Prior knowledge:
Layout: H1 5-30, H2 35-44, E1 60-63, E2 66-78, E3 81-88, E4 99-101, E5 104-118, E6 127-138
Antiparallel strand pairs: 1-2, 1-4, 2-3, 3-6, 4-5, 5-6
Amino acid sequence: MWVTLENLFKVTLTVVFTAVWLAGVRWVWTHQLDPIATVQRLIRKPFKTPEWVATREPNKIYQNGNVVGEVIGPVQEQDSIIRFEKLANTSALNKGVVFQYQRHDLQIRQIGHAITAESAHPGAPLLMNVLDNVVCEKVR
């Protein structure tokens, strides 16, 4: 007998998919669509980044996905070497472990000075755990 549970399931799926497809085709042909305006709306509309997407700030350094410092001042890049004028708020930075800056994995090779607290000028915010003239090498 051809009426088995499997055949009944196949016929049901075929009917459902056909009905959905026909409804979609009917909707497309009975509604006025404006593809140019649709594309323009998609381009202009700013999309908010979903909360589940991990984003990184360009002036921060990271280890294991956590912020471990802040880049202050200019950054110089030459081949596989990156020099930071200052890294501030680095108390959580493990200097012997690779860290990430933007899209680079870096290893510290040299630190000019380590300062506990520093202020650029009176009234400026106090920078804690400042590393001056940090030379890093790109890893990988």
